[in-house]
Specification:
By secondary structure, the protein is α+β, with helices and mostly antiparallel strands. The protein has helices spanning 50-68, 110-118, 122-129, 138-148, 152-157, 166-174, 187-190, 205-210, 247-254, 313-321, 331-336, 376-401, 419-429, 441-453, 460-466, 479-494, and strands at residues 6-12, 16-23, 28-35, 47-48, 75-82, 88-91, 101-102, 161-164, 184-185, 196-197, 202-203, 220-221, 225-230, 240-246, 263-267, 271-278, 289-294, 302-309, 346-348, 366-368, 409-412, 433-436, 469-473.
Amino acid sequence: MRPKRYVVAVDQGTTSTRCLILEAQGRVVAMAQREHRQIYPQPGWVEHDPLEIWDRTQEVIAAALHDAGIDAAAVAALGITNQRETTVVWERRTGRPLGHAIVWQDTRTAALCQALEQQGLQERFRATTGLPLSTYFSGPKLRWLLDHLPGARKAAQRGELLFGTMDTWLIWWLTGGPSGGVHVTDPTNASRTLLMDLRRLQWDEGLCGLLDIPPAMLPQIRASSEIYGTVASGPLAGVPVAAALGDQQAALFGQACFAPGQAKNTYGTGCFLLLNTGATPVPSRHGLVTTVAYQLGSAPPVYALEGSIAIAGALVQWLRDNLGLIGTAAEVEALAQTVADNGGVYIVPAFSGLFAPYWKHNARGVIVGLTRYVHKGHLARAALEATAFQTREVLDAMRRDAAVAVEALRVDGGMVRNALLMQIQADILGLPVVRATVAETTALGAAYAAGLATGVWQDLEELKSLWSADQEWQPRLPAAQREALYRQWLRAVERTFDWLDA
């Protein structure tokens, strides 16, 4: 009888780092999680301490192994998934970060992005990378660090500095750091930099020049599923590091969305909807991002369309923390169930602008349709509907961009425990909504990719057999009523446009 083989996945997220241990049969046997600080030096700036995140990573690996009662000898591979655009620069010789990491939410590069757009470079970046010029992505953050950290640019030009997103930072330290650490990333993370050619999966020297970034500090781009090196020390010493995937692509992979037309939505602070479009990148004409979904070994890459929604669960938190309508986030479901509909109220949570499919950074949130009839139950319902309507907008844009039929939406993330929201989502989409049995689909995707690279699982067909549905919601709302509600939502969204200009 073969000894059990385990795969370890590290999920380095925006607010915490988790470690999940999966056995070969697909069962989660242990998980550990630690939070890290959110640093806000001034309005619009969000930072993390990279060394704190490295410490948390080591802690959760040790804790999960202890809880599972296993050691490195039982582990076949380690996979990494990460918050994608968060940017760190460090010294090649010592591993010392030059400053805090700039988090994906940070908007300090707005002036730089605007200047590039005014130079007429929007289409140059989009045509090559699949991305719009935006503060969201890591290339402009790297440029900012080189411009503002004392001595950074000259040190980078001398080859003394390294750049990476969190996958690169963790893999470098895991494989030895200053003593031979491997400096790599994968196409899913590289495709979020505004620096990678989406078709060649290589850094584009012209775009590096436009952003004034020395190419020597960029990591090597390797497949999402392959052995990069081995863990140099600690409880996983000797274990192959065999996967890297950005968090949303990892969730798509963990949801076993391996065929064109399969889509997943992750419901957290915001929402991230990804649609597998197959072997060819699909340029978006309707406000989406074209990205790499994954690349397995030497196989050609698989691409996706992505729509990012800034505010989903954060709207429920706002009802709790700013308005005091609920005591805990979980209470929003019961409060929303006190009403049969939204009472004519729509909440558009453009708190910091609108992401996909609009990309209007000067929009601001509105509540419309208020009458004396409306009470807090209607506001709770409208808050849940806002997430469902925003998801519908993104999925509609995907349908217009890609000639594939979406038959169901697979869902994950913290909000999917809200059964009312899931039913509303099915009703607004007119599609089945399917919740996976394993909720930690992001870590699951990293584990799957690492296990594929090391022979724990043979192919995608075997991984598909591991995925199972926990619950499914069928649409119940008549089509005419669904479309009437959606038309009103679109009218409400228009009220948010250009608010700051006014």
